[in-house]
Specification:
By secondary structure, this protein is mainly α. The chain has one domain. It has 5 helices and no strands. Helix 1 runs antiparallel to helix 3 and helix 3 runs antiparallel to helix 5.
Length: 95
C-alpha cells in the first residue's frame, strides 16, 4: 500500500513539474518549477528500488543518501525564496 502512495506521489509531482516547464522557459515562476523538480527527485530517491539503483551507480557507498539530503535542502531553500517573495515589500496605496 505504501508503495502505491509513493509511486502515485512521484507521478503527480513529476507531472506538475513537467507542466511548469513552459512557464519556467518564459521566465515566469521559475522557483515553482525548481521546487517541483527537486521534490520529484527527492521522492524518487525515497523509494527503495530507485534508491538502490542510483546508489549502486554512484559507487554503492550511500552517496544517494547524501544526494537526497542536498536535494531536500535545495527544495526548502526555493520554498523559502518563494515565501520571502510573498511577504516582500508592498507599495502603500493612497500616499
Amino acid at each position: 500500500m505504501i508503495e502505491i502512495l509513493q509511486w502515485s506521489t512521484l507521478t503527480v509531482c513529476g507531472l506538475v513539474a513537467v507542466a511548469r516547464v513552459p512557464s519556467a522557459v518564459r521566465g515566469r515562476n521559475r522557483t515553482l518549477f525548481y521546487i517541483f523538480a527537486l521534490m520529484t527527485l527527492a521522492i524518487l530517491l525515497s523509494i527503495q528500488a530507485p534508491y538502490i539503483a542510483i546508489d549502486q551507480a554512484l559507487g554503492g557507498v550511500n552517496v544517494a543518501n547524501l544526494l537526497l539530503r542536498f536535494v531536500i535542502f535545495a527544495a526548502i531553500f526555493f520554498v523559502g525564496i518563494r515565501v520571502t517573495r510573498g511577504f516582500g515589500p508592498t507599495m502603500p496605496t493612497g500616499c
